[in-house]
Amino acid sequence: MADRSMGEWAPLPEDLGREARALAEHCRLLKERTGLSLAALAERTHYSKSSWQRCLSGRQIPPRPALRSLAEAAGADPARLLGLREAVLRSGRPPGEAPRPAGVPRHEDRAPRDAVPPPGDAGTRQERRAGQELPAPAAPALPWAATVWRLRLTAALAAVLLIVVTAGSTVLLSRQESGCGRVTTPP
Q: Is the pTM of this model over 0.70?
């Protein structure tokens, strides 16, 4: 798909849900507001050109950081985009999934492809996706690793200090025993 202006976008799929359609259309509008090509948008947002193509064609739900970057590039408030994204997730119908006939159960055990939040979005809150509560992600191991690193550093510094004090004491004691350290004046 080549970069297109708003009037030249390929039509969104007919079976695209109302929420997903609104998200794709708003993303297209903000992309046009930036005046950037898809390649330039990809470079500026650190989200690939092909991923933007899928998002702008309604085939993929953009992750939160990509939507924040798009809104920032367009000089817009990301709250609307993030709200539209959550509406798509709550609808239980990800882009590219046909509507379910009446009586056909949803696959509750199948999470959206981007259900795991990126590292920048990890937090302690619970998030709703596709109508179900997901547990908050576990705290990163970094604080524990930092604590272990500090303890090891402290132990190493204490060992170095002990070696220096012991060596200094040994040198002083050996000087006193050999008489090298005494100053005598003639009578």
A: no
Q: Is the pLDDT of residue 102 over 60?
A: no
Q: Which of 115, 107, 126, 42 is nearest to 85 (CA)?
A: 115
Task: State residue 62 phi and psi, 5-degree precision.
Answer: -70, 145
Q: What span, in angstroms and rounded, lies between the C-alpha atoms of 158 and 152?
A: 10
Q: Give the confidence band of 17 by pLDDT, cuts at 50, 70, 90.
A: confident
Long-range contacts of 34-42 (CB under 8 A, 24+ apart): 34/70, 34/73, 34/74, 36/73, 37/3, 38/3, 39/3, 41/70, 41/73
**Which tokens is 82 given?**
């993030």
